[in-house]
Amino acid sequence: MSNDPQTPANAKPVTQPPPPPTREERRRPWAQLKYFTFQPAIFPRLLGEVSPDARAGDLVTVYDKAGHRLGTGLYNPRAKIVLRVVSHGPEVSHESEAESAEGAEGAESAGSAEGEAYFERAIRRAVALRRDVFRLDETTDAYRLINSDGDGLSGLTIDRYADTLFCEVYSLGIAQRLPRWLPLLHALAGTRFARVHVDHDIGSLEGIRPSVFNETNAAAPRLVKIRENGIRLEVDFAGGHKTGFFCDQRENRRALARFTKGARVLDLCSYTGGFSLSAKITGGAAEVTAVDLDEAAIAQARRNANLNQARLKFVHADAFAYARQMQTNGESWDVVVLDPPKFIFTREESGNREGRQKYEDLNQLAISLVKPGGVFVTCSCSGLLGLEDFEQHVIKAAHRLNRRLQFFDRTGPGPDHPVYSNCLESRYLKVLWSRVV
């Protein structure tokens, strides 16, 4: 018992954490951070020393600034994001104390079969979340299956469309491993085909050869038909933007139907008609006008309307020009939905300012077309624009018209787009719901 009168009799002795391993004891290949951070995306300025045997695409053990093990990540010295930390903590390799004590000669590399098993566990967790926990198959066969950092698979997003997986690859390490993962993904998701897309600029920077996926892509269909909350839709992988369809708005499309019974609805930047069809088919809108600048998107929206035997009014026009003309004509709608493309692409002040002004101007035009007491739904998919900032731009747009917005909801993507607590910046979609008074 301690003789110190201030020490409780039942106090446990304080144990010091073990010292960090020496460079020779570290699991190879490895990378050490220059600063303390819990972020998954490590840029060059944040990265310190790297073991000489680390190659582009390797799964490396990650150590923090003090030399303690932090986790495991995919390394690529030529990439903009040189290290993608896929797992924090000891989970990835389940190393034993005995293995650690063996030092460099006895320890397996982080990229061994033991380390690579992390990815299978992550894939299984991600698919089970959508199919077993959220039970998405009961209402749709189109949803985000893998959400990059939100599923511990940084550099990979996969959307499931009926029997086809659409994979977007942003990391060399992911591209090297994806062919091995596809059989498992098909078995878990009940799919048969895959289309793999690599952005040209990202592929060049990362050192990815898209040609390795030529055979996989050739076997996949160009068009698939999906179902979403009782609505049938056609997805064109070759002709559409990104994946050809936006699963992230699924829950918002369904929510819109609550406000469209017998209403006159305007869908600005309608793309392939998701909101329009939900308003008409599920919500029972009296009239729906869908406006988009993309002629191919309007043609696809018409096909989607035909699939559901729904009558919609389609307008091929720029949203700014159309809204100004309708403002001049004195037109108004009971419900207006505004879902424009991304306006902010850079952190640079000039481009950022221009994008923010576009949001403000277009929202002002859209709000002017809402009947007093009508519902206004406005969206932003610019990840560099925070929710609070977006809301302020929308408020300014309304107040310039001497109108107020009665906000009643803020939403984002569905649960199939999860976000980890150490990567909140991956929240990109913001949706504001209000009445215009």
Present the secondary structure layout:
Blueprint: E1 30-33, E2 41-42, E3 47-50, E4 59-63, E5 69-75, E6 83-88, H1 97-101, H2 103-106, H3 113-133, E7 142-147, E8 156-161, E9 164-169, H4 172-189, E10 193-197, H5 200-206, H6 214-219, E11 223-228, E12 231-236, H7 250-256, E13 264-268, H8 274-282, E14 287-292, H9 295-307, E15 313-316, H10 319-329, E16 333-338, H11 349-367, E17 370-380, H12 387-400, E18 405-411, E19 430-436
Describe this structure in words.
The chain contains twelve helices and 19 strands. The longest helix is centred in the first third of the chain and has 21 residues, at 113-133. It has three domains: 30-109, Archaeosine Trna-guanine Transglycosylase, Chain: A, domain 4 (Roll); 116-221, Transcription Regulator spoIIAA (2-Layer Sandwich), CATH 3.30.750.80; 224-436, 3-Layer(aba) Sandwich (Rossmann fold). The protein has helices spanning 97-101, 103-106, 113-133, 172-189, 200-206, 214-219, 250-256, 274-282, 295-307, 319-329, 349-367, 387-400; strands at 30-33, 41-42, 47-50, 59-63, 69-75, 83-88, 142-147, 156-161, 164-169, 193-197, 223-228, 231-236, 264-268, 287-292, 313-316, 333-338, 370-380, 405-411, 430-436. The model is unreliable at 92-108 (pLDDT under 50). It has 437 residues and is an alpha/beta fold. Helix 3 packs across helix 4 (172-189). It is globular.
